[in-house]
Amino acid sequence: MGSHVVIVGLGLIGGSLAKAFSDFTDCSVTAMDTDPTVLKKALEDGAISQAGTPESLCRADYVFLCLYPQAAVDFIRRHGEKIPSSCIVADTCGIKEEICRQMPPLAQKFGFTFIGFHPMAGKERSGYAASEAYLFQGASCILTPCGAPKAAVESLKNLLLRLGFGQTVLTTPQEHDRMIAFTSQLPHVLACAYVLSPQCPNHKGFSAGSYRDVSRVARINEVLWSELFLDNAQPLTAELDLLLENLTSLRNAIAAGDGDTLRSLLQKGREIKESLGE
Amino acid sequence: MGSHVVIVGLGLIGGSLAKAFSDFTDCSVTAMDTDPTVLKKALEDGAISQAGTPESLCRADYVFLCLYPQAAVDFIRRHGEKIPSSCIVADTCGIKEEICRQMPPLAQKFGFTFIGFHPMAGKERSGYAASEAYLFQGASCILTPCGAPKAAVESLKNLLLRLGFGQTVLTTPQEHDRMIAFTSQLPHVLACAYVLSPQCPNHKGFSAGSYRDVSRVARINEVLWSELFLDNAQPLTAELDLLLENLTSLRNAIAAGDGDTLRSLLQKGREIKESLGE
After folding, report:
1. What is the pLDDT of residue A1?
2. pLDDT tens digits, one per residue of B210-262
3. What number of H helices and E strands is found in chain B?
4. C-alpha pair distances (Å), B93 with each of A42, A183, B76
5. φ, ψ for residue B103 (rounded to 5)?
6. pLDDT single digits (tens) B144-171
7. CB neighbours (10 Å) of residue A99?
8. Rounded to an integer, what distance in angstroms lies between the CA atom of residue A40 and that of residue A50?
9. Which of residues 97-136 of A touch B (CB under 8 A)?
10. CA quadruple B232, B235, B236, B238: dihedral positive or negative?
11. Which of B11, B55, B56, B54 is nearest to B29 (CA)?
């Protein structure tokens, strides 16, 4: 018999984890969600073996917190004492420094192991209805051990690799948040700023892949992403300032008709992309 | 026997038009290119029936200029007198106002019909090697008639629809350039500014779809795109100024920890995307 996995929150990530655990492993999956219709649907789908309560935590080998960052911390504050000391608890939040500041002291207090986890997978739809077992195929699985024992990190890593992740990256919360500000948060801010142009509603017939790609993630969950942006305000603001500076240089070259500067800036961009083999 | 099509320049667009005409219509395709190895490859591929010279223009029913904007105008200045009066000449440039300022007087002088054409299709690779017959499948075919007779516009439109375009849009050069500044040029400027971040070379393991989508077109042909940007400097600068303003509002809300403003800006973006059914 496989491990007992408890998933807290059956949104896009929690639902996809549940489906992947049920489809690709022999783990039994218990899930909690504030919406009983979601739990009913997940049971019907075979995504979970049972709908749980906080009491289900007592038998968990692994707990995945698939909630907004502060809600994940609050859940542990409230129910952490039910978690056995053999259990590994992982969040799935898109920021790590704030989480890894609050969680390890709670883990120590309640006696379980905490490891930060960020599955680099998502889509521009949210909620259980958008979840799928194959969401993590080939994606990067980022772990921030935050002082957890090596054996626990190995155990979590091996479990997660069974869900289809393409690679695991071990890093610090600081490094994670600095990189995510660039790779994920900045494109989301950009997408939103982009579609605010008054030309946007008339784009059909005049657009192709470039419009589609930049605007895709403007369909954002603003409550979740506001929390993620504010929890990572310093690195994200630094990336935004850099982008504003580089955009302004390009804008000024275009406005001034300065072809030499313009070509040289575009060339730099092309060379960076090419040097990455992309 | 189908029409005689002459294609000038076998890059990504010219090569793809040649392949689409040869695969999907009974037109005979003659092409010119400054690179003899490209012509040889296109003959081997069956993309063209023959390699031409400017003299081939004498028998053309349709001429497609698949060159950079000013090179297209210069080509007509030099060889326009060889084009028969029954012929329809179309450029394929990404900007239209500058082209449609220079071309109609030349068409009048030499006695042929000119229609502006912009196939809304492309990819982040350039040159004949990247060309493909299916490039235009489902894409928008934008035409700027610039005073050409209705029958000629219908004739060109019907010919092009045989290549797989999903729709045709008739518009003015001004409207075209204003829309393209937003839908195509702005994402290219953005992609370049984005990859200039010092975090970019280290993104692997920390990135997924958002990074990939925003950075895709940073692999740019800087000579072509500098010309396109400078030919459309006013609308593009206006879009850039708007984007800088909206990005700055988002940046300031994040830096100030102002969750209400941040949520409200992100919500606006989401609502625009949703209202477009995207």
Report:
1. 67
2. 999 999 999 999 999 999 999 999 999 999 999 999 999 999 999 999 999 99
3. 11, 8
4. 52, 32, 14
5. -75, -50
6. 999 999 999 999 999 999 999 999 999 9
7. 28
8. 9
9. 120-123
10. positive
11. B56
Instruction: Please tell me the predicted confidence (pLDDT) of residue B125.
Output: 86
What is d(CA A31, CA A18) in angstroms, rounded to the nearest whole number?
A: 8
Euclidean distance between CA atoms B47 and B42, whole angstroms: 5
Report the candidate in A33, A50, A212, A203 with the shortest Cα–Cα distance to residue A131.
A33
Scanning the structure block, which residue is given the tokens 């207090």?
A109
Where exactly are the structural domains of chain B?
A: 4-171, 176-275
Q: Is the dihedral of CA A248, A250, A255, A258 positive or negative?
A: positive
Q: Say yes or no for a CB contact (<8 Å) between A187 and B211.
A: yes
* Mean pLDDT of the region B182-194: 97
Tokens of A178: 């600095």
CA atoms within 13 A on the CB side of B48: 26
CB contact under 8 A, A268 and B225: no
Banded pLDDT at B123 (limits 50, 70, 90) = confident
Q: Which one of A174, A199, A220 makes the best mutation probe of the B interface by having the most chain B beta carbons within 10 Å?
A: A199
Strand locations in chain A (E)? 4-8, 28-32, 50-51, 62-65, 88-91, 113-119, 140-144, 167-170
Q: Among A250, A258, A260, A274, which would you mutate to test the B interface (most chain B Cβ atoms within 10 Å of its Cβ)? A: A250
Angstroms from B265 CA to nearest CA on chain A? 8
Query: Which residues fall within 8 angstroms of residue A119, CB to CB, at 6 or more apart?
Result: A13, A17, A92, A135, A136, A139, A141, A142, A160, A165
A107 neighbors A114 (Cβ within 8 angstroms): yes
pTM exceeds 0.80 for this model: yes
CATH, range A176-275: 1.10.3660.10
Give the residue carrying structure tokens 């008709």: A257
**A140-144/A113-119 β-pairing:** antiparallel
Could you say which architecture CATH assigns to the domain A4-171? Answer: 3-Layer(aba) Sandwich (3.40)
What are the per-10-residue average pLDDT scores of chain A (278 residues)?
94 98 97 97 97 96 97 98 98 96 97 97 90 97 96 97 96 97 97 97 94 95 96 98 98 98 98 95
Residue of B198, B225, B243 with shortest CB distance to A193: B243
Residue A272 contacts B, CB cutoff 8 Å: yes
